[in-house]
């Protein structure tokens, strides 16, 4: 009897029950998560470790993951080449301002499509999806010619104006996110607010916006990241005007050689992989900090919004 009980406990510990996972499944799950996490974190870890290697460590084949010393000279050089303080502020301006405007405008569009009926609604939805399907490379030349006629090339307004009219970078995705959020919102809340005399804009501000906080957070995060990392369109619209970190990083080698001419510096000041990795890490560092802060905010906002559709 005792032996059968012991075997049952061992079986439950290994295989689990209906209410708990067994040790085998738990170990497999953690190994899978560690493997997936390693795949995503490996490039970032390799970049950071390489960026803090001294020139001697770079030439030493025995030094792989653990440098013999923490060498910050690569970051000092990359900081100067990127003109970091000025270009960082420019990048934040170029990324945050259109993102906030785009998120607000897309929320209004998504709310209108989700809560109102009007002629041509399906046509509008189809056109919005078309703006997402059509590659931006096919429309960039007409946009560039239009902005040149309006005198907007090299001006941040070339990014703000499209965002103001719901045509920013990947605006269709954010419209669909807000559409899906607002269409699942209980109608009784709107009806109760209108019975109390609330206008449409007041219903949107007091009822819809608090309900869609998670959608706002995720839209702001992805919009900032896409504006930050977009170099093709940003270079075309802002070249000759505002300089951003990704734009400066794209010509990092040329800028480094202008600052440290090959014939006038020693071998340790020549450009190497560690300096390039330092410049790349400085470019993505603000995004990593934003993710670190906004992730907690996003989780808390999802937990606070307990309203579901009916």
If you had to describe this structure to a student in words, what would you say it looks like?
The chain contains 16 helices and no strands. The C terminus is likely disordered. The protein is flat. The relative contact order is 0.13. The termini are far apart. By secondary structure, it is mostly helical.
Q: Helices and strands in order, then pairings?
A:
Elements: H1 2-15, H2 23-51, H3 55-59, H4 73-81, H5 84-115, H6 121-133, H7 140-150, H8 157-164, H9 171-183, H10 187-195, H11 200-211, H12 213-229, H13 232-238, H14 245-250, H15 252-259, H16 273-304
Helix pairs in contact: 2-16, 4-16, 5-8, 5-9, 5-12, 6-9, 9-12, 12-16
What does this entry show, briefly?
The protein has 310 residues and is mainly alpha-helical. The chain is built from 16 helices and no strands.
Span of the ends, CA to CA: 53 Å
List the total number of helices: 16
* SSE order, one letter for each helix or strand: HHHHHHHHHHHHHHHH
Over the alpha carbons, how many angstroms does the gyration radius reach? 26 Å
- State the total count of DSSP E strands: 0
Helical fraction = over 70%
Which sheet architecture does the biggest sheet show? none
**How much is the average pLDDT?**
81
Low-confidence stretches: 305-310
Structural class: mainly alpha
Strand fraction band? under 5%
Task: Tell me, briefly, the overall form.
Answer: flat
């Amino acid at each position: 009897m005792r032996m059968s009980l012991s075997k049952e406990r061992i079986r439950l510990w290994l295989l689990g029950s209906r209410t708990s996972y067994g040790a085998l499944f738990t170990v497999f799950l953690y190994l899978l998560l560690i493997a997936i996490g390693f795949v995503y974190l490996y490039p970032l870890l390799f970049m950071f470790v390489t960026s803090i290697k001294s020139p001697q460590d770079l030439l030493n084949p025995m030094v792989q993951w653990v440098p013999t010393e923490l060498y910050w000279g690569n970051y000092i050089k990359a900081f100067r080449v990127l003109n970091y303080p000025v270009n960082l502020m420019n990048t934040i301006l170029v990324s945050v301002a259109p993102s906030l405007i785009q998120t607000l405008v897309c929320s209004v569009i998504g709310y209108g499509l989700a809560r109102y009926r009007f002629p041509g609604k399906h046509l509008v939805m189809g056109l919005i999806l078309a703006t997402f399907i059509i590659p931006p490379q096919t429309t960039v030349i007409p946009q560039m010619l239009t902005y040149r006629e309006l005198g907007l090339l090299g001006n941040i307004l070339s990014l703000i104006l499209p965002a103001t009219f719901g045509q920013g970078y990947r605006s269709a995705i954010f419209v669909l996110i807000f559409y899906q959020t607002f269409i699942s919102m209980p109608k009784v809340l709107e009806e109760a607010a209108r019975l109390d005399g609330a206008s449409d804009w007041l219903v949107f501000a007091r009822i819809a916006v608090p309900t869609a906080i998670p959608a706002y957070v995720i839209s702001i995060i992805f919009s900032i990241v896409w504006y930050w990392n977009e170099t093709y369109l940003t270079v075309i619209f802002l070249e000759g005007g505002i300089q951003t970190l990704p734009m400066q990083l794209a010509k990092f080698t040329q800028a480094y050689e202008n600052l440290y001419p090959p014939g006038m510096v020693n071998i340790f000041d020549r450009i190497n992989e560690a300096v390039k990795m330092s410049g790349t890490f400085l470019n993505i560092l603000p995004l990593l900090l934003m993710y670190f802060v906004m992730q907690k905010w996003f989780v808390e906002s999802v937990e606070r919004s307990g309203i579901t559709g009916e």
